[in-house]
């Protein structure tokens, strides 16, 4: 039986939103510690995990919800210890992350709108 609600799409969008929020937190942490001697920047690992899932999907193995659970975004060290924080690059990353977050929210809204149409048999 085919589910009306595509749980994988909702789960993927949820993970991507989590990654965007975590990336905003990492950037804020980096900016706050820009003048801290020996500070090591932090980042978020997510896209590489999604690339592994995509490679598996291309090989014919569709990702399951349990596969998605293992692909959760995580904080990681970014750059060498004591390398310093470039505030202009952090601000550019923040702008990009905000735009990415907005795009993900629009995608989730469209997905939920389609689910609502299916539930209401195409009636608004």
Describe this structure in words.
The protein has one domain (23-117). The protein is built from four helices and two strands, in the order αβααβα. It has helices at 7-32, 47-58, 65-69, 87-119, and strands spanning 42-45, 74-77. The protein has a two-stranded antiparallel sheet with strand order 1-2. The protein starts with 6 loop residues before the first helix and ends in a 5-residue tail after the last helix.
Number of strands: 2
**Helix share bin:** 55-70%
Outline, from the CA principal axes?
A: elongated
* Tally of individual helices: 4
The parts where pLDDT drops under 50 for at least 5 residues are none
Report the span from N to C terminus. Answer: 26 Å
User: What is the alpha-carbon Rg in Å?
Assistant: 18 Å
Please indicate the count of domains: 1
What order do the strands of the largest sheet run in, or round the barrel if closed?
1-2
Mean pLDDT: 87
Sheet with most strands: 2 strands, antiparallel
